[in-house]
Description:
Blueprint: E1 6-11, H1 20-28, E2 37-41, H2 44-52, E3 57-60
Antiparallel strand pairs: 1-2, 1-3
Amino acid sequence: MAEQKKIKIQYYRSAISTPVKHKLVIKGLGFTRLNQIVERVDNESVRGMVKAVPHLVRILES
Length: 62
């Protein structure tokens, strides 16, 4: 089985005053605290979630 590509995402800006949808996207990506870095499978659904909140998260080079 081929290993899937991974993407590292950092939650670097607070979602306190953002719409509820943005908060749900942050939670859906698996973030629980600020400046946290998570590694997710690099697919269209994860890329779409990141694209929905580009002002809150950043993609790190791996």
